[in-house]
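Supplementary Text 2. Reproducibility record for the structural model of the 308-residue chain.

All settings were left at their defaults, and a single model was retained for analysis rather than an ensemble. We include the record here because the model underlies the residue-level annotations in Supplementary Table 4.
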Amino acid sequence: MVENTTWRNKFWNVFINELTKIFKSKRFFIITFSFILIALFSLYYLSFSANNTFGRPKLLLLQVFTTQLYFIPSFTILLAVILPLCSIAFGFDTFSSDFMNKKNKDLYYNNSQKEILLFSKALAIMITFSILLFILFFFLVTSSSIIYKIDIRAMELMRILAFYSLSILYSTLWYIISIFISLKNAKSKQSLFFSILVYFIIVVLWAPLILLISFGITNSRLIAENMYSLFSNISPFILYKNAAQGILLQPMPAFAPKLFNPLFAAFLIPGGLEYQSFSLIWLNILEFMAMIIFILSLGYIKIQKNLN
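Retained model, structure tokens:
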């Protein structure tokens, strides 16, 4: 009982310390500023739908997240691209700098409490992104409803809340990926290089590679498309982007990864388009949670090997 209390106290002490360091860091203010720019762009995009001479769309509030202007991507795509970079900025030197500067030495070399640092950092970044994204989403919803006189519907708020939760998981996953890479590299520069390399592969190269492989190993278009749909969703970027499209009712291109695996199509609930895609969102949430738990487990195993 005493050991559990001591572990809990040390965990919360480290957690508060990590959270304080994040909020005082220059990176936090730079990332906050980038979020403000994204919000302003999105409000500007919405003016094109709000002032449409053919009448307002039925779900105008959701279009603040999905409207694309010329070559500038929508809010959804911007988040899909920028959130991983924000997470990498917070996490690439998490363990590298700690090892070099001998910080938290007692936690690193105490076999009974060595996991505290890993889990406290993960929780701290989840809280950080929860706050940042809440402010961003709240600002977008309230500003757009006031400026463009939008009547907010419960269904729209429910979808925005689901997208908010998905974004927290997505950013946390990328942070955990970056701190796992930092565990494997003693120097911060190496950790940053490999974090950016993983980001480039997952965000830029993954979809084209899977597409080439899928059509390269079979002559059947149907089989190739199903393979592409299945394996492309291994990428957190594509999984997040497609799930967001389903939540926010954003139209997808003619040839794009399907939102959900066709094997689960039978679970679609009857009803209008506004509610149908919600029936399978939990599959995407579970997939993100599984990725987070898996990489956290790898990080914990790595710490144990380093310290034993």
